[in-house]
Give the backbone structure.
Amino acid sequence: MHGRELTHEDYLASPMITDPYRLLDCCLETDGGAAVLVGPADGPRRVRIAAVTQGRPFPADDIVNRPDPLTIGLTHAAPRAWEAAGVGPDDMDFAQIYDCFTFEVLQQLEEAGFCERGGADGFVAGGNIELGGKLPINTAGGLLSEAHVIGLNHVVEAVRQLATKQAPGKSPMPVGEQ
């Protein structure tokens, strides 16, 4: 979708897939590949992995019978990741958020602690997730406009952003160079 303008009219004209999701609320179906090689900390492009956690809602496969249907794996994993890394949401310069559907961006902003539950709409409307905002997200376009490569493209873009940030004066690695 790079270089393509999306107007509100275009969005409303896109086919309804299942209420409330229109075609343009769903990630692109894509063939592709991505890879991230993890090597020694003294390698040529140093990006340190500060923490890794995982989480699952319970029950994982039965959303309607959860005590809180908005609880997702990130609800449990994010606080542990922040603690293990010794940082918090306010310390982040950007975020790569799994965006298989538009709603997931809002939900994950809240569950990761970037804003309070119920506050994502105001956070987004306030320009916080735009380039130059408080927390730019999905800086390569994300699954909704770049590709759905099982979300690994978010990791590739995060490494690209971090490598660029840590090496002032260098431009980001061009898309397609891996």
